[in-house]
């Protein structure tokens, strides 16, 4: 099976406290720690397992700037065979549709049976996979937590409300968005990253992809992010302060009052 | 005039709660807009649901076809693209069905797309202004959406005020004949129910719920000890189940259990809406998190900025000393 996995470089929510910049219109991105989107690691792991069983190869692709190359290398250290970076000034400010348009162009340069994305990324939209499938006229299943490969068709489980699983049969080629928990992604050590440090990663721009620059980037975006803000914590939690003993004393009073002790 | 079409899912003849939340969302988009409910399905269930919706909506479109008996997103999408005008605003819930349907629908309708919207700030000409969250709720963003050639929007379930008026006496419009070709490359087979675990977290009044902040499988014992001291049980967020540290039946959230405890102790949990969506009945929520900006502090009753690995044993001791 020829598999394409789409991956995104995102700020790591576990490693960062998010602050706004001085203008208050964007995150203060200077000191942010980035990593590969959590969901995408599950997608790459799943691709590796399929190829281990059935043969084939895995390509990882991302739309981003020069720094996005590091996530491709990480996924190649995991076991992906090839990486492709889609990068061009004209891609900046793309909305989900713009990203999907670029990925579609890349899909059409290859001969992929299966295209995997994460179920969602840092922006919580979960949009790129479904858009890409619709643009390609491929069938799509979101939130996939089980894949049983077969000939020309595969069986997939979708995680639905309450943790129930909806089983479907889907024709190849198709696009699947992968939900966490489908597998346990392997650990990538420094040595693995070093091994792929020298591998050439092709960079493709609008011209290489044959994409009209006006259909992507800010020019093509129908949705635009105006600014970031942090909601007023005014009606949020009552914060208990003091040293730990004082906090515990106050907490126990409250728990008693609420019938919790 | 803005035309809004709200897709209403239903199961076993009962409409999704979002059916009552759409009118508030629609009013915030454009108070002068027309609002039409759209339901797809097959047979008596569909007819009943369509009739019931006329109490809330002045117009209800129904599309009846055997192929729509189970809501396969690919087939629903095909039906909707034939029935909904291309310049309309389409509302869909941001749940596992909406995530399956809506992105592709926006492409086929050639409309703008905005996902998991939590609030609207109205239309400015053809530009819709809305609010959504990023980074698991840590930050919010204002977004503009060019709706001149339509927009598909998923709204966060439970965020808009449910309508209580049952005042409308709308009409059902049958558009089954316009649904077009409903063949699909994806076929629904069956639903496999989630496994039942050893511990039933839905029965406990006190839940000590751990998230990724527990850091290591060995630390779960601390939470168990605290839960024992409080007479409660240990529950968790999704990453703990993904890591296979606890069984799935302990997971609280939209893709896990719905719980109704009296006390919910959220330990090292950031407060994503999928997690909070599983907590009902307005319990007393205590959040302990080492990040003072963790989004859970916006929804908890009491917040404590501490390292849970230090805090849990100390709290346990203090409770045992009572
Ligand atoms: C500086 C900056 C400015 C931006 N401005 C805007 C703007 O004005 N309007 C707007 O709508 N958006 C804007 N974006 C958002 C950006 O274009 C998003 O990447 C896009 O919306 C898709 O990401 P998502 O998180 O919504 O993906 P989701 O759909 O949630 O991600 C699901 C999956 O899609 C795949 N995927 C997502 N993104 C990529 C990618 N880049 N490369 C490869 N695969 C990917 C991954 O497999 C991922 O797991 C901006 C981003 C940045 C950094
Ligand atoms: C379709 C779908 C369904 C989902 N369903 C669910 C669901 O049912 N249930 C669910 O939980 N999630 C669900 N999720 C995942 C959800 O989006 C979040 O990713 C998840 O809830 C995050 O879990 P968390 O809060 O434990 O981890 P994180 O978001 O990583 O938060 C960890 C928190 O711990 C804090 N912390 C770290 N170390 C410490 C320490 N030592 N002491 C104190 N605090 C510490 C950090 O500051 C952070 O706030 C779903 C996602 C999708 C896409």
Describe this protein with a few key phrases:
heterodimer; A: 261 residues; alpha/beta; Rossmann fold; nine-stranded mixed sheet; B: 322 residues; 2 domains; five-stranded parallel sheet; 25% helix; 30% strand; elongated; binds flavin-adenine dinucleotide
Structure description:
The complex is a heterodimer of chains A (261) and B (322). With 261 residues, chain A is of the alpha/beta class. Chain A has eight helices and 13 strands. In chain A, β8 and β9 form a beta hairpin. Chain B is an alpha/beta fold and 322 residues long. Chain B has two domains: 3-178, Rossmann fold; 201-320, TPP-binding domain (Rossmann fold). Chain B is elongated, with a radius of gyration of 22 Å. The chains are: A alpha/beta (261), B alpha/beta (322). The interface between A and B is large, with 81 and 94 residues. β9 (165-171) of chain A pairs antiparallel with β12 of chain B. The complex binds flavin-adenine dinucleotide (2 copies). Chain A: Keywords: Electron transport, Transport. Chain A: GO terms for molecular function: electron transfer activity.
How is this fold's topology laid out?
The complex is a heterodimer of chains A (261) and B (322).
Chain A: E1 2-6, E2 9-11, E3 34-36, H1 38-54, E4 57-63, H2 69-78, E5 82-86, H3 96-109, E6 114-118, H4 128-136, E7 140-148, E8 153-159, E9 165-171, E10 174-178, H5 190-195, E11 203-204, H6 206-209, H7 217-220, E12 223-229, E13 238-239, H8 244-257
Parallel strand pairs in A: 1-4, 1-6, 4-5, 5-11, 6-10, 7-10
Antiparallel strand pairs in A: 2-3, 7-8, 8-9
Chain B: E1 3-7, E2 10-11, E3 14-15, H1 18-29, E4 34-41, H2 44-53, E5 59-64, H3 73-83, E6 89-93, H4 96-108, E7 112-124, E8 127-134, E9 139-146, E10 151-155, E11 171-174, E12 186-192, E13 206-210, H5 220-230, E14 233-236, H6 238-242, E15 263-267, H7 273-276, E16 284-288, E17 302-304, H8 308-320
Parallel strand pairs in B: 1-4, 1-6, 4-5, 5-11, 6-10, 7-10, 13-14, 13-15, 15-16, 16-17
Antiparallel strand pairs in B: 2-3, 7-8, 8-9
Helix pairs in contact in B: 3-4, 5-8
The complex binds flavin-adenine dinucleotide (2 copies).
One flavin-adenine dinucleotide sits between chains B (96, 136, 211-213, 215, 237-239, 251-256, 268-270, 272, 274-275, 278, 288-291, 294, 307-309) and A (13-14, 119-120, 143).
């Amino acid at each position: 099976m020829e598999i394409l996995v789409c991956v995104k470089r995102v700020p790591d929510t576990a490693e960062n406290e998010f602050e706004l910049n001085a203008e208050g219109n964007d995150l203060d991105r200077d000191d942010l720690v980035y990593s590969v989107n959590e969901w995408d690691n599950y997608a790459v792991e799943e691709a590796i397992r399929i190829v281990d069983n059935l043969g084939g190869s895995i390509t990882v692709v991302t739309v981003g700037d020069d720094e996005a190359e590091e996530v491709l290398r990480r996924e190649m250290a995991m076991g992906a065979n090839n990486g492709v970076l889609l990068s061009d000034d004209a891609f900046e400010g793309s909305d989900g549709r713009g990203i999907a348009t670029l990925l579609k162009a890349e899909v059409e340069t290859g001969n992929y049976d299966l295209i995997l994305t994460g179920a969602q990324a840092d922006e919580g939209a979960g949009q790129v996979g479904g858009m890409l499938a619709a643009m390609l006229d491929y069938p799509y299943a979101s939130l996939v937590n089980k894949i049983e490969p077969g000939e020309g068709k595969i069986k997939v489980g979708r995680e639905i409300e309450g943790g129930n699983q909806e089983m479907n049969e889907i024709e190849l080629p198709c696009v699947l968005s992968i939900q966490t928990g489908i597998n346990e992604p392997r650990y990538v050590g420094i040595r693995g990253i070093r091994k792929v440090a020298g591998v050439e990663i092709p960079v493709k721009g609008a011209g290489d992809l044959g994409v009209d620059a006006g259909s992507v980037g800010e020019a093509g975006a129908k949705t635009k992010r105006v600014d970031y803000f942090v909601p007023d914590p005014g009606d949020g939690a009552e914060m208990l302060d003091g040293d730990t003993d004082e906090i515990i004393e106050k907490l126990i009073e409250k728990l008693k009052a609420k019938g919790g002790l | 005039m803005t035309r809004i079409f709200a897709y209403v899912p239903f199961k076993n003849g009962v409409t999704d709660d979002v059916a009552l939340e759409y009118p508030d969302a629609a009013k915030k988009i454009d108070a002068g807009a027309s609002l039409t409910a759209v339901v797809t399905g097959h047979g008596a269930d569909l007819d009943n649901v369509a009739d019931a919706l006329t109490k809330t909506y002045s117009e209800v479109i129904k599309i009846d076809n055997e192929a729509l008996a189970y809501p396969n997103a690919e087939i629903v999408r095909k039906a909707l693209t034939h029935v909904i005008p291309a310049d309309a605003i389409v509302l869909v819930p941001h749940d596992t069905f909406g995530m399956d349907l809506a992105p592709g629908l926006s492409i086929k309708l050639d409309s703008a797309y905005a996902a998991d919207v939590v609030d609207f700030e109205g239309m400015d000409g053809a530009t819709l202004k809305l609010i959504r969250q990023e980074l698991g709720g840590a930050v919010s963003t204002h977004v503009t959406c060019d709706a001149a050639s339509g927009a598909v929007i998923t709204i966060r379930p439970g965020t808009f005020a449910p309508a209580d008026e049952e005042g409308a006496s709308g009409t059902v419009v049958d558009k089954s004949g316009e649904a077009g070709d409903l063949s699909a490359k994806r076929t629904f087979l069956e639903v496999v129910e989630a496994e039942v675990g050893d511990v039933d977290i839905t029965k406990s009044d006190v839940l000590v719920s751990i998230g990724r902040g527990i850091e290591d499988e060995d630390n779960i014992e601390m939470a168990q000890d605290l839960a024992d001291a409080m007479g409660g049980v240990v529950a968790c967020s999704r990453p703990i189940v993904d890591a296979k540290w606890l069984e799935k039946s302990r997971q609280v959230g939209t893709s896990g259990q719905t719980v109704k405890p009296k006390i919910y102790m959220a330990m090292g949990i950031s407060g994503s809406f999928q997690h909070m969506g599983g907590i009902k009945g307005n319990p007393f929520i205590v959040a302990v998190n080492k990040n003072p900006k963790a989004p859970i502090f916006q929804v908890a009753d009491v917040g404590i900025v501490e390292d849970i690995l230090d805090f849990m044993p100390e709290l346990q001791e203090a409770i045992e000393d009572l």
